[in-house]
Amino acid sequence: MINTISIYCKNNQKRVEVPIGSSLLDIYEEVGEPLTSRPLNAQVNNRTEGLTFRCWQDKDVEFVDYTSSSGQRTFVRSLCFIFSKAVHDILPSATLHLEHPVSKGYYAVIKDEKPLTAETIGHIKARMQALICADLPFTHRSLRTDEAVQLLRTQKMEDKARLIETAGMCYTSYYELSDYANFFYGCLTPSTGYIHLFDLVPYANGVLLRVPRPDKPDELEPIICQNKMFNAYKEHLTLQQTVGLNNVGDLNIAIREGMAQEVVLVSEAMQEKQVAKIAEEIARRYQEGVRIVLISGPSSSGKTTFCKRLQVQLITNLIHPLGISLDDYFLNREDTPKDENGEYDFESLYALDLPYLNQDIKKLLAGEEIKLPTFNFETGKRIYKGQTLKMRPNSVLIMEGIHALNPELTSFIDEQYKYRIYVSALTTIALDNHNWIPTTDNRLLRRIIRDYRFRGYSAEETILRWPSVRKGENKWIFPFQENADAMFNSAMLYELAALRPYAEPLLAEVMENSPANAEAYRLLRFLRYFNYLPQEALPGTSLLREFLGGGSFKY
């Protein structure tokens, strides 16, 4: 009888024999504790598992700490469980809503009979700290879904009950902490003691749950001002409450009851109202001197469709829009700056010919005609095809690109001429009251579909490229988002239900031995909670058509 299994540790390329059924915690010690900081989960055959997971066959294992996005998710998920337990203990009749990330933390609202005070927040924080100091285990359980629904309803968690009831799975997993059960969709740390640092502070009408920095885990993320983003989230949350779609369980029920078209129409109307409002503001500011509209946002935020819809709305306001592509102002390839690895850094602001761009803008604002450059990406050279551009008396320039909100981009142009817009998919619909949907997941799913349908990339290639994309966004986009005069939320209440049929087959193609498999598998499990919404319900002008195809605009 074989009593051992072989484990290959990818962290230090060490292979060990361990007793069959060993936990990942046991295996971590056997392979020599290869990380410099405490592990939070592990990739087992390229699938994320909690450290209490037991191995019964030979496996490849890679341990993960807080410096990785997967480790951060496990840490934050565990911290939120502790937070919800502490609120339950201090305010038994209260309802906790973990709404969305903002200001480098996570915003939450605690609804109770009495207003939330600083003293009460202090009591909740103290209870969280006590739970952490006690180093209590998170116990993983599994129930038949109908029994889990009953358990949730007895604990007055109707939002979670609706979600798992409509997701259609036979069994549902959950965790217990002492006598408190809750559902967090993904693995937790083995115990509360793994949470080494946090804070809970008053913020707006609720609280901000603060977490460590990924690059310096012994320091808290600094609180940064993000009032415009916070208000953009709030506006959409108000819409959700108005139509009664507070979470995915509500959306699933609406789809099942034949209300999909109504949900789509309301979401689309909300977006068009946003676009029209921004166009009207630009028209008003035109009278004060605005002549340039600068549009920025992260990857797959829908900037292209937003630009096209904005141009339509500007025309209805008697404004003539002219477009300039920032990509055409790239430096010639040999002049492009290089990154720390010696590769051309096309994400850098300094990959653009800033003096030349500002010179052309100045000429246009002075009423002069310019020769439009075109950048040939095959040769890496700027060329001219005889195209010219000149502004009319009622024209505005529309310029879209990742650096558009960076003040240095148009530093030679007077501020009175500029109007800045930030576009992003600020996902507001949540799985349930305690599980928000990261905007990065929403955008990644959009990009996976678009890259496959229109650029010939597989889901594996897109997933493997995503960390580099995110690195560029953190450096060149996110620091400048609060510079915007307007913030456009491109996320739809219904969109993940519409994206699911397109994303699932692409994610399923990722092989188990691929480094992209952990992320593909995580996204597949996440999408299971959404009921399908048919594509024919989407209008041709929908922003989602930029990713799915079949739209009215040409891209």
Topology:
Blueprint lengths: L3 E6 L4 E6 L2 E2 H7 L10 E4 L3 E2 L4 E2 L3 E6 L4 H22 L4 E8 L2 E7 L6 H16 L5 E6 H10 L3 H10 L3 E7 L2 E3 L16 E5 L2 E5 L16 H17 L4 H9 L3 H27 L5 E5 L6 H14 L3 E6 L28 H12 L4 E7 L4 E9 L5 E6 L17 E7 L14 H17 L3 H18 L9 E4 L5 H14 L8 H11 L17 H4 L7
Parallel strand pairs: 1-7, 15-19, 15-20, 16-19, 20-21
Antiparallel strand pairs: 1-2, 3-6, 4-5, 4-7, 8-9, 9-14, 10-11, 11-12, 13-14, 17-18
User: Could you tell me the radius of gyration in angstroms?
Assistant: 25 Å
Please state how the strands of the largest beta sheet are arranged side by side.
2-1-7-4-5
The unreliable regions are none
Summed over residues and divided by their number, the pLDDT gives a mean of 94
Biggest β-sheet description: 5 strands, mixed
Q: How many β-strand stretches?
A: 21
End-to-end distance:
63 Å
Characterise this structure.
The chain is an alpha/beta fold and 555 residues long. It is 37% helix and 20% strand. The protein has 15 helices and 21 strands. It has a five-stranded mixed beta sheet, with helices on both faces. A five-stranded parallel beta sheet has the order 16-19-15-20-21, with helices on both faces. The radius of gyration is 25 Å and the shape is globular. It starts with a strand and ends in a 7-residue tail after the last helix. The model has no long low-confidence stretch (mean pLDDT 94).
